[in-house]
Model the fold of this input.
Amino acid sequence: DLTGIESMDQCRHTLEQHNWNIEAAVQDRLNEQEGVPSVFNPPPSRPLQVNTADHRIYSYVVSRPQPRASYLTGLLGWGYYFIMLPFRFTYYTLLDIFRFALRFIRPDPRSRVTDPVGDIISFIHMFEEKYGRIHPVFYQGTYSQALNDAKRELRFLLVYLHGDDHQDTDEFCRNTLCVPEVITLINTRMLFWACSTNKPEGYRVSQALRENTYPFLAVIMLKDRRMTVVGRLEGLIQPDDLINQLMFIMDANQTYLVSERLEREERNQTQVLRQQQDEAYLASLRADQEKERRKKEEWERKKKKEEEVQQQKLAEERRRQTLQEEKERKSECLPPEPHPDDPESVKIIFKLPNDSRVERRFHFTQSLTVIHDFLFSLKESPEKFQIEANFPRRVLPCLPTEEWPNPPTLQEAGLSHTEVLFVQDLTDD
Done:
């Protein structure tokens, strides 16, 4: 209903990715739809290392005001202090030894971070239930993700460690952190990440930053290409004082961010230039490859055409040779020409397509196929032809067909003793 996902399988898969934390899953889906980078992805395998040992770290500690006492009360207090000193020393020493031994037997459960995003979401709910919804925008992701985003966006990261049991925590959250001026400054100038030290994720960050008291704030930024703590604010600080201290820390370190932005812009320009050069080189390479491909295709096409022409020439040569052999065979198989005085002979004059004339005698009893074979054996006759008679005009069936399986004889075809026949060229057909 909240995200518009209609597939139950996709909903289940999304929830499993977020360890069944429905609020984290919904927020991540909405961020994805709005094009905002996800803050609920698993933390990087190698989290960013934060430099906390810079000697230039600005540290501001607000001490708790001590109640003023009379001279007599002071003497009594000092006397009581010296009397109780041995007992206090023994008590705290034994307590520390006990805690040290207990740590080996049962490790602190906060040292095992199993659901860092869940720790953050749980703290935000607790904070809003106790102090209301008017507060700086909490970063809804792990500490490592906040560091990565601050590094990528070149912004200040303000880290707040919430001590649930500290006596100044309530007053700081109500009267300092939730003041409109403080909220405006934090929301407009930096990312804000917060967590309780009672949560495993907050405890892990506490071990890294090693705060001395609460409330504790740390300002982290990219400095000299490393995420570095550039300011520490500890103790119950008032709103105006907090604003002044944050402004002072940001102003003192703004040049590092400006320098990093310029370097990053220069690197980006260099990268863009290199990318353009690479693209130009690839385009030139592709053009050369395309020319080479076309040249190769043209060569192959030309070679193929030459081969086809050669094949055609060879085929034509073989065909002509076969045709000549067939003509010679037909000529050898022709029966001898009858004598002119033979009464059964027929004198035929053939008019060829090239206007030449050929004359030969045949016997009345011979098949019309003999006439065709004679003409076929002639050098000047076409390869394919038909023989026509004029009176009446007809085509002589010299070759076997379905209608005339056995061609008729000259006498059966109605030829007289002297005939003029026309040879029609059918080669083009």
